Amino acid sequence: MITGSLVALVTPMHSDGSVHWEHLDKLVDFHLDNGTHGIVAVGTTGESATLDPEEHMRVVGHIIKRVNGRIPVIAGTGGNSTREAIELTEEAHKLGADACLLVVPYYNKPTQEGLYRHFKTIAEAVPVDQILYNVPGRTACDMLNETVERLADIPNIIGIKDATGNIPRGAELVEAVKGRLVVYSGDDATAAGLMLAGAKGNVSVTANVAPKGMAALCEAAIAGNEEETERLNELLMPLNRKLFLEANPIPVKWALYRMGLIGEGIRLPLTPLSDRFHGEVEDALKASGVL
């Protein structure tokens, strides 16, 4: 079972938007050295929407090679086309990904039956472990708990990243699918609560800049240590809030730049963090003990 702090890794870039491979190695090593339990490669935070398919898979393969089996690598391979998602998932499987993360199809707003058939078709086409990803705030399509329950009976669908931020709903899902698939939080601000309710980890943006703290928080919450979870959650909360002042990954890429880990590169239509937010993000880094 994949558990703990699963960093939604950024994709570092040069000023012209091309991938910065040396900085990518630096980030992977940073997480290996600081206790991160797993890496999610080329998800939303990794700017999957603006990497072409060849680049997408090259980044996934590069991370898998650099990690070299030391921690799990989960490849983002979702799409709003079932056929495209299958192709990306097949390629990630060939590259050696431990699992694939498949987002709910965005923009085209499928029905619940359409969602069920989409994920079932991918799971049956590619024999790699698969984690569903529900993030209605980005996809404009909400996969209901009842649909997840139907999918939980498919053997290689092993988990779901729940980024609804709704702890009561997430806790209900944990109970409904217990023993069949694992629930992960996909919302840093509410992750502690969901893990205390039974989720087994957090796919985290905050872990990009605070890997030790997020790993410790996940370990404490999964173990049911409420006092330590509350202490660590309070420490990280400034980052959980300020890293979303503008669309993710704009603030976290600036934070990593401020920490000296990557350059300022980001791809249009995303733009560098607005000057007016620099102080707030820097203050959050200091308040959480990162700077």
From TrEMBL:
GO annotation (BP), single: diaminopimelate biosynthetic process
Entries under SMART domains matching the protein: DHDPS
CDD domains hit by this protein: DHDPS (cd00950)
Residue ranges of coiled coil: none
Keywords: Amino-acid biosynthesis, Cytoplasm, Diaminopimelate biosynthesis, Lyase, Lysine biosynthesis, Schiff base
Assembly and oligomerization: Homotetramer; dimer of dimers.
Family annotation (NCBIfam families): dapA (TIGR00674)
Name of the molecule in the record: 4-hydroxy-tetrahydrodipicolinate synthase
